[in-house]
Amino acid sequence: MSKERFVCPSCVDDYAVQEFIRCNAEEHLCSYCGTETDADNDPIAAPFKEVADFIREGIEREYEAPENSVSWDTGEGGWQGVEPMDARDLMDEVGLESSNQGFLDDLCDQLNDQEWVHQDPYGLPEDEAMQYSWERFSNQVKHQTRFVFFKVQTNTSEFDSEPNAILEQIGRIASHKLNLIGTIPIGTRFVRAREHSAAENPVTAKDLGSPPKELASQSRMSPAGVPMFYATGDEATAFAETFTTNPEKSSVTFAIFQALRELRLLDLTDIPAVPSIFDEEAATVRSALGFIKSFELDVTAPIPNDHSVHYLYVPTQVVAEYFRHVFTLPDESKLDGIVFNSSRRPGGKCYTLFADTNQCTDSLSDTSKLLALVSSRKTRIDFTNGTFS
């Protein structure tokens, strides 16, 4: 580049780089796309060199030159076990895109003063290491040591030196790094749906709340025999989550329960997007968000609703038990449940509350309980299109 050039936010497809350009704009004309404003308006373009330096700083948080960490084989004349990237491959890997080829060419020229590899290139990036640990743990409790996993020792990475260490990692990420512990107020209402025969008329909290232990079938968050209170935020989601196409159960009763005290939940419904590598303020949570996003997909993955024995439930059942019985909040209290997105109805929310049948009451004034039945309505199921009237 023979003279100083300037770039505007429109030439870069990354929110953090765009914000840097806006904050450091000096010129009214973009050297790359030609966008121009008159002198009466604020400048729109920042010096290219400053933008390139900012991009380099972001990249160097996770990447480095191979000579810093990779062995060189003088005999074969190459880096051992790692294939370094040039600047264009690096741009693809970090996801930095530009609508202007000239800007991208100049940026790659600036970054091609060296080759690039991941920091700690012989290991996994932190989010991938955590994801690998979760996958190992899930495989173990599904197929190997379902009931004594906490006693099994392994020789793997720092993230899963013990099989149950991943549970503690999830707890730390949720509470300390990402602040996923939410509070819902007294009076919040939940909707449950119970399918039954046309001859039945369930009307009480005992009929419509958490089942007794002997009738508690396995679900996403609880094994058979362990009652929990499953609910949603609306009738349509409640029906979608419980509909089984069983012709003997031609009716459904919807029950509205109300929280009798403030509840604290692990909230997996609105996890932020993984931030840009160039977002310095969010750098400390980037790996955690990458992992928790993939974890949330496992928690909400669709599972056949046929009440057969699904080993696929086991990892999320273990996670729920960890948050119910082991995890503690800073004040040493326990969580009341988990809220996550419905896998059967887009936009719907599902609640798993750690409440058995003894915590459900018919009286709004019985504050020794957790949930009170407010109302219920019975309706029929239309099996021709899988809806209710």
Percentage of residues in strands: 15-25%
Order of helices and strands: EHEHEEEHHEHHEEHEHEEHHEEEEE
Give the N-to-C terminal Cα separation: 70 Å
Counted beta strands: 16
Radius of gyration: 27 Å
Low-pLDDT runs: 155-161
Number of helices: 10
> Largest sheet, order of strands side by side?
7-11-12-13-9
On the 0 to 100 scale, the average pLDDT is 89
The coarse silhouette is: elongated
Helical content, roughly? 25-40%
Structural class: alpha+beta
* Main sheet overview: 5 strands, mixed
Structure notes:
By secondary structure, the protein is α+β, with helices and mostly antiparallel strands. The chain folds into two domains: 6-118, no CATH class; 182-388, no CATH class. It is 28% helix and 17% strand. It contains ten helices and 16 strands. The chain has helices at 15-23, 48-59, 87-94, 101-111, 126-143, 165-177, 205-208, 235-242, 286-299, 314-326, and strands spanning 6-7, 46-47, 63-64, 72-73, 78-79, 117-118, 181-184, 189-196, 229-232, 251-259, 263-267, 337-341, 349-353, 360-361, 371-382, 387-388. A five-stranded mixed sheet has the order 7-11-12-13-9. Strands 8, 10, 14, 15 and 16 form a five-stranded mixed sheet that branches. A two-stranded antiparallel ribbon has the order 1-2. The longest helix is centred in the middle third of the chain and has 18 residues, at 126-143. Residues 155-161 have low confidence and may be disordered.
